[in-house]
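FAQ

Q: What does a record look like?
A: Structure on top, sequence underneath. For example:
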């Protein structure tokens, strides 16, 4: 009986459990694999924290947020890695793991790719609320995050209208503006600011002033946490950071741009402005039906790839079809918001 390990790495997101359930159920019932969970992402593989699954472990989890396996942002290939990659290889041998299903975003898949280059049998499944992984039209988690942000924007409209305010809503998304663009379009934002587009504050003030001149006494601005705000000394602008710390993959901790932006807008337009930061609320709670189904389809396709011994690949969504591509194709770059989406959003600015 072959033993297959499954792990979830990086930030949690809705749909992870639906995906785990699909991998485990199909692996056990159709291929008679022994399925086991690797706890807390790559950390569990380094430390040998592995738990054998039975059907009961994956029962009743389809609708649950988070991940029953736990997660971490552990990078076994960081500079001072203390031999972590070798430890992973040792544990794979020790626990007799035939192949690993790695569910995660760019960082988790980056590790998966490096391990596959070292001969590990691995298949990737793309997840992230940011939707920034190349090669797939959508990652699961994104749809739920967008729906949460839209609900928040709908609620924020009430206060904006009642108090005649400009309400800035800061959403996640790291260095891409997918959540901001989709939530902004669906929530009727008057301005959407994303990292892919250079920010012109004079233009932002003009849009808001024009809107208020035509009798609309409130505005909604959706801003992605990863934009660079124009500041005096830097032509390209600067990120606003929560702290100077970086994570094991070298990512800065974004967050806080919304309140700086709200002050600038108040000064630049004369209209009272406030900011709401949605933060981790966007990653919490039950997944939408879309994310449950996408995770289920990805999980089912990933275990098929393992069965066919097509390792070093990642399952992706292309149009409405699940396909697979080489892991190396998703390495080293983000999928950014293209002009089609931003031009669509811009039609409704002001
Ligand atoms: O990648 C998902 C994400 O939620 C980003 O949108 C955000 O910048 C980051 O993770 C936050 O990370 P953490 O949960 O480690 O603070």
């Amino acid at each position: 009986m072959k033993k297959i390990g499954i792990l979830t790495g990086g930030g949690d997101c809705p749909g992870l459990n639906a995906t785990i359930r699909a991998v485990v159920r199909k692996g056990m019932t159709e291929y008679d694999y022994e399925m086991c969970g690797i706890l807390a992402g790559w950390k569990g593989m380094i430390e040998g924290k592995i738990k054998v699954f039975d059907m009961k472990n994956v029962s009743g989890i389809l609708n649950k947020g988070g991940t029953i396996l736990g997660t971490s942002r552990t990078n076994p290939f960081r500079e001072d890695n203390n031999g972590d990659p070798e430890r992973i290889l040792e544990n794979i041998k020790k626990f007799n793991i035939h192949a690993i299903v790695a569910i995660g975003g760019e960082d988790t898949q980056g590790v998966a790719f490096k391990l596959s280059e070292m001969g590990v049998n691995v298949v990737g499944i793309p997840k992230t609320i940011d939707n920034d992984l190349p090669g797939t039209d959508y990652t699961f988690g994104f749809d739920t995050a967008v729906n949460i942000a839209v609900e928040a924007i709908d609620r924020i409209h009430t206060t904006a209208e009642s108090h005649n305010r400009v309400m800035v809503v800061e959403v996640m998304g790291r260095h891409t503006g997918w959540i901001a663009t989709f939530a902004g379009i669906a929530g009727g934002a008057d301005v959407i600011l994303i990292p892919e587009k250079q920010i012109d504050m004079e233009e932002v003030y003009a849009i808001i002033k024009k809107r208020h001149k035509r009798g609309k006494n409130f505005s909604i601005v959706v801003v992605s946490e990863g934009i660079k705000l124009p500041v005096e000394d830097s032509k390209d602008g600067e990120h606003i950071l929560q702290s100077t710390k970086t994570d094991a993959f070298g990512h800065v901790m974004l967050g806080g741009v919304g309140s700086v932006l709200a002050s600038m807008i108040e000064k630049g337009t004369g209209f009272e402005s406030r900011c709401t930061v949605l933060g981790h609320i966007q990653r919490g709670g039950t997944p939408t039906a879309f994310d449950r189904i996408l995770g289920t389809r990805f999980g089912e396709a990933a275990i098929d790839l393992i069965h066919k011994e097509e390792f070093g690949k990642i399952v992706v969504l292309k149009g409405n079809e699940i396909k697979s591509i080489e892991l190396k194709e998703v390495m080293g770059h983000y999928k950014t918001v293209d002009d089609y989406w931003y031009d669509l959003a811009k039609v409704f600015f002001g």
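Q: Is there anything notable about this one?
A: The pocket of 6-O-phosphono-beta-D-fructofuranose is lined by residues 11, 105, 128-130, 172-174, 225, 254, 283 (CB under 6 Å).
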